[in-house]
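Q: How would the structure tokens look for this protein?
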Amino acid sequence: MTELHLQSARTLSGDLVDVGIDQVTGRIIRVTQSGTLQPSPTSHTLDLTGYLLTSGFIEPHAHLDKAFLADRVDNPEGDLMGAIIGLDAIRSTITFDDIVTRATQAAILLSQNGVTGIRSHADVTLEGGLTPLLALLETKRRCAHFIDIQVAMLLEWPLTGTQGAQRHALALDAIAAGADIVGGCPHLDDNPTQAIDILLQLAHDHNLPLDLHADENLRPTSHDLETLADVALRTSPTIALNASHCVALSVRDDRDIERIAEKVAQASISVTVLPQTNLFLQSRDSSARKQRAIAPIDLLRKSHVNVASGADNVQDPFNPVGRLDPLETASLLVMAAHQSTQNAYEMVTTSAASVIYGDDRGLVVDKVADLVAVPAHNARHAIAMGSSQRIVIKNGQLLTPDSYKDLPTYN
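A: Here is the predicted structure in token form.
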């Protein structure tokens, strides 16, 4: 048996530990007090003195098909519809190879920053067809040795009314092509409630997780999340459910939020907040009192809802900046959402892993050895400094520059 021994690493709780990893199975086999793990003739030892060791960062909500399009797409309004309209204007110029190249570059950068798993949405539209989805499935295949990529169809709206039938057929094609997750944007549909019913039924019929772009607006009358919870409580689906964005909750009063959060918890729905992109896109119609446009994390967590966080878009018309770094997301959670550094770190590691895997992938014996070590003595220090000198372990294997060789890159 070949073992990887990690010595003298600091955990989020502050303990100093040694970690043993079986590189054949890719799993953690020992977590002991520092100094107690003895190397063997078949083991390789890595000294992590001065490093914070956690389960790998997770990006639970990305759009790899759009990565690095900022200089090709105009969004003069700076809002959500401006980005959508701008993207539609150039959609015909976006090719399969173009997407694979940009998405692969994004996956490499995410991995180098310590991300071991991604859930990426891929546009599935009448004009663009399945090209973005197929391109991300190819990216998933090419990058599988250093990062997990889940591909969610982001089904075009409307799904209701006379135009819905074509898109429903397109969704079936996407599932047949290998989509891992069903997704859509009910808040943009003429009938959001019916759209949620359609998407949930589609996911249920094919035993796929459902991940909705929900309530991505600041209208207090928007109720995608509550509708999803009501339907789930009524029908008891056995599939995993996640609602991303949910920024409309931020303009509700506390009692209303608490009422909705109780339903969401009972329905076992996770919520993924996306501060970077929502801070950029939302509240554009207000010149002075701008909303923060981040779902109310504390009230959701108070009701025991699993709340994760991701970056969403990166360097595209929905978000012109971003470094594909979960510590950047964590920093925004601290500053804009008033989270503790500990909570922020968990939201981009274990909580995010629970969204995409149904398991927190923690630093625990028998868990998959997807780990990241950052030069820091605690979560606050890691978030504040954002060091690029990170050590990444995927399925028990130490990643090196050779892990990314012979892959297409985008400049």
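The chain has a mean pLDDT of 95.

The domain at 57-357 is CATH 3.20.20.140 (TIM Barrel).

Upvote if useful.
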